DNA sequence: CTGATTACCTGAATGC
DNA sequence: TGCATTCAGGTAATCA
């Protein structure tokens, strides 16, 4: 499932391949992936054709290209949802060569190919950008840039430079953002009456965190997912943020978490962070931290918010009541 | 404001 | 074998 590290791996791959490239044509193979582009398929194609990609950015799980055409810069926004992929295809891997005798390795991707952008790189090479999405929770859309309605960091008089797509303004800064403010998060958590994991998954409070990394960070911070946010201490919030950062950085270095072919980088290569997960997917397996201490607790799985939560009952003690 | 529910989706895995 | 059910979960809208 693409969360922050997976999206960042994709962003870095895209930067290498299509930064500076011109979009020569946009083919829409399934209009459902343009659900969030309200102006429709034709408008999407018209707006993109002939533009040049000048930047590729990310906030949380949202990724966008700055594309410059005759009407100034606009944002081509992509969200991978549950199963979205952005793939770069060059040479014989391109769609235009797959009609008569498709490459067998490409068939699963071709089956779910939704949007195809023909690009011409600055060196003249023609490559294709594929948006592939099995479950269609993701999609692309074109948006205008707005200034972030940002808080002013304490002691600073200038808002950090930040133009972001209008439909991304409600997404909070993520833990790898240089302007992320842990104290601000702490203050907002204290004002809410909700559970810690629910808050971590709320992209308007902190972004980039999904089910897997929420469980991993809570485990590392030693906090139960049902802890009430209003009663967290500053150091507990700091521990959680530090855990998220550390896990994100390690996962990024490993190329992200891949359970199957649903998450891959722009070249189709999976990441290998799945084997570094401490709790997610480890139901009834021994907690490595407890095992080291000799108590041998087993990882538990509970259903929460229509998804699984994994935790160690010893390392992450359940709060006794609604005040803890 | 909060939390619960639902819709949006497909395919793999499971149940009978 | 076949058909029905369950599960995976990110986002956003709706409802109480």
Give the gist of this structure.
This protein is 25% helix and 23% strand. With 324 residues, the protein is of the alpha+beta class.
Description:
Helices cover 25% and strands 23% of the residues. It has 324 residues and is α+β, with helices and mostly antiparallel strands. Helix 1 (4-18) packs across helix 7 (234-253) and helix 4 (182-191) crosses helix 7. The protein is globular and about 60 Å long. It binds a DNA duplex (16 and 16 nucleotides) through residues 1-3, 32, 35, 61, 79-83, 112, 133-138, 192-194, 198, 201, 203, 210-211, 259-260, 305-308.
Secondary-structure map with pairings?
Elements: H1 4-18, E1 22-28, H2 41-48, E2 52-59, E3 62-69, E4 72-79, E5 84-90, H3 107-111, E6 113-120, E7 126-133, E8 139-143, E9 145-147, E10 163-165, H4 182-191, H5 196-200, H6 211-221, H7 234-253, H8 288-293, E11 300-304, E12 307-311
Antiparallel strand pairs: 1-6, 2-3, 3-4, 4-8, 5-7, 6-7, 9-10, 11-12
The protein binds a DNA duplex (16 and 16 nucleotides) through loops.
Index terms:
alpha+beta; 4-stranded antiparallel sheet; DNA-binding
Based on CA atoms alone, the radius of gyration comes out at 21 Å
**Straight-line distance between termini:** 31 Å
Order of helices and strands: HEHEEEEHEEEEEHHHHHEE
- Strand content of the residues, in percent? 15-25%
Q: How is the largest sheet built, in terms of strand order? A: 1-6-7-5
DSSP strand count: 12
Number of discrete helical segments: 8
């Amino acid at each position: 499932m693409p969360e922050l590290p997976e999206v960042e791996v994709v962003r870095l791959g895209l930067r290498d391949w299509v930064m500076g490239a011109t979009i020569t044509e946009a083919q829409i193979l399934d209009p459902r992936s343009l659900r969030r582009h309200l102006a429709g398929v034709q408008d999407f194609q018209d707006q993109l054709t002939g533009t040049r990609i000048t930047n590729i950015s990310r906030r949380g799980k949202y990724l966008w290209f700055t594309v410059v055409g005759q009407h100034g810069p606009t944002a081509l926004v992509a969200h991978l949802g549950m199963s979205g992929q952005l793939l770069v295809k060059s040479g014989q891997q391109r769609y235009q060569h797959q009609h008569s005798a498709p490459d067998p390795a490409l068939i699963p991707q071709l089956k779910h190919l939704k949007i195809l952008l023909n690009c011409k790189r600055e060196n003249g090479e023609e490559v294709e950008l594929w948006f592939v999405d099995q479950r269609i929770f993701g999609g692309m859309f074109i948006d205008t840039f707005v200034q972030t309605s940002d808080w002013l960091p304490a002691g600073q008089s200038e808002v950090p430079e930040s133009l972001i797509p209008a439909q991304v303004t409600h997404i909070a800064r993520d833990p790898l953002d240089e302007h992320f403010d842990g104290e601000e998060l702490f203050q907002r958590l204290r004002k809410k009456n909700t559970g810690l994991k629910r808050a971590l998954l709320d992209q308007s409070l902190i972004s980039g965190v999904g089910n897997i990394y929420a469980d991993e960070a809570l485990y590392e911070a030693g906090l139960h997912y049902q802890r009430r946010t209003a009663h967290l201490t500053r150091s507990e919030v700091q521990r959680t943020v530090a855990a998220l950062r550390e896990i994100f950085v390690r996962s990024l270095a490993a190329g992200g978490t891949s359970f199957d072919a649903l998450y891959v980088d722009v070249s189709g290569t999976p990441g290998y962070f799945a084997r570094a997960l401490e709790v997610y997917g480890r139901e009834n397996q021994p907690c490595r931290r407890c095992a080291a201490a000799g108590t041998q607790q087993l990882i538990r799985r509970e259903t929460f918010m229509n998804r699984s939560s994994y935790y160690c009952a010893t390392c992450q003690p359940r709060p006794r009541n609604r005040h803890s």
